[in-house]
Amino acid sequence: MRPPISPDILPPDDFDLGLVASDIDGTLLLNWKPISTATIDAIHRCQDAEIPFVLVTGRPMRWLAPIAEQIPDLGRVVCLNGAVVYDIASQSVVDAHTIDSQTLAEITAAVRVDHPEARFAYETLNGGFIDREFVTGRPREARIIDDVSELAGEDVVKVLVRLETSDSQAMHDLIDPLVDGTCHASFSEPDNGLVELAPFGITKAKTLSDLCDHLGVARAQVMAFGDMPNDIEMLSWAGHGVAMGNALGSVKAIAAAVTDEVDDDGVARYLDAVLDTRPN
């Protein structure tokens, strides 16, 4: 039996939990496995206490179907690193931040000047598009294009970049200066060789903040869970940011607390410990 969560890493006694925000991959589940029963029970425990549980993910909307099957009563989800707010129950887009055609052309041109080997993929409100030589594990889910101009008229909400390396941090360090001021660069896996570009000024934290304003929840009342650099702004913004035990060191360094790894139900164990301390 695992030891209980140490009281030393729980929020202070005066923390008034008003909303839980959580990343999905590497936080609620790993490698596309189903969410554990313990985690689903903890989510429902929050909902029963009238504490909203909000998913905040880099996933596009079409990758949320397995989550909806397991937890159909979730409400709004922040997708694509903050670019889209999606209602999982009605399967509809509530709000979206897009990258216009001119900016899109500037981004791809700026990267290709220094890295002509760069290949791009594009998430839109109408599905995914990829360069002909872009390597992806889900090619049947995307339409192939030969030039970025073919995306005219599409609502582009995220751009993914590949170079000739699998080191995502190294890629980010190369690409971020090239797109500074036109979009926000991050990555969500350390070794998949992908850098993710969101519309300028858009992060998980920014869109979560707007959603909390809509729900009437103060920043100080938000508890957030995450594991990768695209979660850093969210964990830093939240009243209490919690890194997973499997999180990268850069994420743990900015978090208020570190819970167990995802395979050890880190979110569920931490939430249960917090909820156990709440007055009835």
TrEMBL record:
Positions of transmembrane segments: none
Keywords (A to Z) from UniProt: Hydrolase
Pfam family, one: Hydrolase_3
Molecular function, one GO term: magnesium ion binding
GO cellular component terms, semicolon-separated: cytosol
InterPro entries: Cof (IPR000150), HAD-like_sf (IPR036412), HAD-SF_hydro_IIB (IPR006379), HAD_sf (IPR023214)
The keyword Metal-binding is assigned to this record: no
Entry superkingdom: Bacteria
Protein name as catalogued: Cof-like hydrolase
